[in-house]
Amino acid sequence: MSTILFRVNAGSEYGLGHLMRCLALAQSLKKQNVNSVFLVNHEARAICQQRQDWTGEIVTLDPHVVECEDVSCIQGLIQQFSLSAIVIDGYTFSSSYRKQLQNLGCFVICFDDTNEFGDLHADLIVNGANAALTLEYETTNPQSILCLGDEYTVMREEFIANQQRHFPYRESLLVMLGGSDPLALTLPIIKELQHQRFQHAIDIVTGAANPNAKEISNCLQSSQLNARHLHDCQNMAQIMARSRFAISAAGGSQFELQACGCPSLLLVVANNQCNATRDAVQQGWCQCLDCQGADSELSKQAFAKAIVKQTLAIWEDPDLLMSMHCKANETKHIGGAQKLAHAIKQKV
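Above: the chain's sequence. Below: its structure in token form.
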């Protein structure tokens, strides 16, 4: 039985998106009788251990380790587990580090979103957004096998097997700003929804790496909103599939929302989200707002007002909501993880 190493970080600094798509691939590899080992930072270990759907062994790096020691650790893991491939996902890994990994002799697989870093020193590159087809990976990485486009969008098992609630019976607004909410927009959005006297049910989801979860919970307890707080939620597919509309961070969550037929307002909080979000808007199932300038309390309040205003305009238009829901179902792809896992198994 083959074993593959995932090198990925997660936490308040990195978010959870890289880890979640690695987990999605690991789940599909398990169906192909391929084992997984995750080499992660210390903060990520606790997040992994809390997940009910976790698969794979976890190895933790010392927080003070430098890149050369990181590579030495991987070299030891190659021998310990007879590794046949390494998956790397993240933007903090230097070109030198990536090259050292490739020199270890394993087949190297890289998740990427932007093609902004030139040679990724990978044998196989994955970008599950349709925009990837226009990013000229053939020029920057001519030696790599390319798995590009939404047929390679990876999703965890819960979204592949999920059953949607009939759309006219969906009643709740979902607010979920990623694993760590890096711009801390959840609280300003809650306060603006209260200011607008939003009367409908709201699910406020905070990720495992959100440092403001307790403050958000306290705010909701004293508010007039019909809201519940779900921290480190383990059944997101079920929550999304019964939501009428979502205010969500762009990134990996947007593919999950699309799979659940959930009309959304996607908030772009990082450059690497732009291509996939632009493509999603063109598909017609969502709208977007670039929030990268939300770097002060005043700007956060201004963005919250704009977010809630745009949300209410869509919420109060049932024909638009139904159209967005239908377009999500027409354009979704849920088989990417299985297809990628099969392609990897053929190579390793």
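The chain is about 40% helix and 20% strand.
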